[in-house]
Amino acid sequence: MPPGTGDTQLTISQQLKVNGAIIVTTPQDIALIDAVKGIAMFNKVNIPLLGLVQNMSHYICPNCHHESHIFGSKGAEREAKNHDLEILGSIPLNEEICTQSDAGKPVVVSSPDSPISDPYVDIARKVLNQLE
């Protein structure tokens, strides 16, 4: 769902059978404010939280392989700890993810053997394990 805790999110949460929710956030404090609101909303409507995913968690330079935390670091980890949730994974800021998504081809489909697909596969495995 889109960020926030508005009517759309509440209606879906109340009218559909939902086995669990995943909160996706970026590391910035401003994004984490919305993530915490989402956590509170899912708790109020008794939907189990499966964990947090930190999107755009870091950028790895394709030339020198230096890792930069453009939007800050460990914000999702801090909130996960505060709310007793698991970090399901971290997705890097990566041009291939953007390009393939815009083309309608998720990176796990367009490049399933690429290391950039690994975080998605790991997150999916963790979610499946929780739902079994």
Automatic annotation (TrEMBL):
Keywords, comma-separated and alphabetical: ATP-binding, Nucleotide-binding
GO biological process: iron-sulfur cluster assembly; mitochondrial respiratory chain complex I assembly
InterPro entries: NUBPL-like, P-loop_NTPase, YlxH/NBP35
A GO MF label: 4 iron, 4 sulfur cluster binding
Record's GO cellular component terms: mitochondrion
Protein name: Uncharacterized protein
Organism: Cerrena zonata
